[in-house]
Amino acid sequence: MSATNDAFLETFPVTLRDAATNWLPAPWNWLAQGLIAVVAVLAIFGSLFAILTLVERKALGRVQNRPGPNRTGLPYTARLPWLKFTEGKIFGLGQPMADGIKMLTKEDIVPREADQVLHFIAPVAMLAMSLMTFAVIPFGRNLVPVELDASVLYFFAAGAATELAVFMAGWGSRNKFALLAAMRALAQLISYELPLILSFVPVVMIAGSLSTVGIVAAQSSWHWGFIPHWYVLTPWGFAGFLIFMVSALAESNRSPFDLPEAESELIAGHLTEYSGFKYALFFMAEYLGMTALSGMAVTLFLGGWNAPLPFLQFIPSYVWFAVKLLTLLMGFIWIRATLPRLRMDQLMHLSWKFLVPLCLVNLANTTVWHLTASLPLAVRWLLCAVIIVAPFTLIGRSLTKGVAPRTYRYAE
Amino acid sequence: MLGSGLLQGLAVTAKNLVGSFHDPARYTTVEYPEVKEQLPESFRNFPFLVTDNATDPMGALRCVACQICEKECPPQCIYIEKSKDKKPDATGKPQLYPAVFAIDTSVCMSCQICVEVCPFDAIKMDQEFEIATTDRFSALLLNREQLAKPNTYFHQIRPTEAAEVDGRLTAERKAAEEKAKAAAAAKAAAAAAPKPAASAVPTATPAATAPTAPKPAAAATPAVPTPEKPAP
Question: Quick check: is A317 in a domain?
Fold first, then answer.
């Protein structure tokens, strides 16, 4: 264990940071280290956002039997001999850059009657709050920008503040549609805050810590040396993980919960009066929020930066974090490619009638898990699985009674 | 159980995503400007004039400026001026030819009526669809030189119809030749013998069948487009 702790690649980011800041006097040293962490998060997740937009469009295209964006190249790449076969197009890798330039050079229209200050602050606040959530995610061993005792609480508080920005956008636009859409968006976001937070309470209960570092540390061992001690592999953890991901979809306004900005049905919801780069900022905030929530899901349920098997520990911890994070993000894209948008009442029913009761059952389930620690693992596992699967089936059946399965008949 | 439908849907999209990398049936997009699909034979947009001689298109237009298409054209997009003189056609027979033949493609509605009414198989529907121009007046008015395309091109875009037309035309020409030959033989026989009873009967038979010979082919003409109609 200590060998992997001290491996060159494992400690490389921290070594690099220390080498850059150690010559400074102590108070400045602390500040410089913080700034480096901020710049690193901005650079890494900013470029991840850019690549993610391209990957998403390509994956959606592939699902729909088409190639997706593959024309926009980068200048001078056609001259490189090993890239000659792409004819300067390099599989559309220039698309994010072209999109960025397009957004930057577009006209920024602000309605005359709009609240100029709120209209301007809303996208900035949205992005700032989304970025602030990255502060407490442990990206690897000793790689957490800010170590707080109640960092999970901080994460969800900062994440919830984006809802304020959504309403600021709707209110500041002085537009009926934007205001109504912002209220609808707020209703959705607040409804899904509840299952989102209730779904990870079991993790806090079992780990006995509100610190993300502590939660990751609690998942860092293996049963019998090969089954990782991740919470997703327990019945209550699996249920919590699924509920967390569904709520995260809704919180980040992703399909199938993208009602606030349903581009094919509404004008653009609370983004109606936004154009140019402010609009792009909202999108950036959406993707960053999605990334942050996925990072939190990795931390809470998927063992954080821990390797799945002991002998795989030679791979640096941040690589494992990145692999898990990208897997979850691909899952988001996959779901977007598959599911149609929900109706507003279905959305509300799903949260209040289904996810919240299941979350409460799951809390009790976790208590059972905690109190039956003396039983053999298999018995304990089966018992808790029954406790959560039975209500899932029963509630699901009662909610879909008379509705599903629908039958369709073609006209004669 | 609740959620099984979601999993089925996810399986469908996952199959499409993975299949798009190895299964042509799941990756049906053709990247158009680089790759062009073979158009179906029945596709048509604007008419063109068939010429029998690729090297001298104006010398061998099948069109004899009869102006039937001009009169039949519902939106009246065809404009023809007859020539004052006559030029030999593909068979060497002197014919009138269009001094001016213009089609306004901004007016043409691609109805193919000009093709249906043409008794000389001189006008056919083209498949050229990349016809965007920066000039919406003169560039959309196609003149005789732009419209004339060789018969080989017709064979390229519509092999079935072109073969059928060629077969009919050669049959007609052969019949006409035989008729002329028979007429000449009859004339010679009439001039040679004062009692034509023995020689006139065998020569009269091809002469009598000659006018009827093109008829089955002509009757077949309206039936030609029927099998070519695009399948729904």
Answer: yes
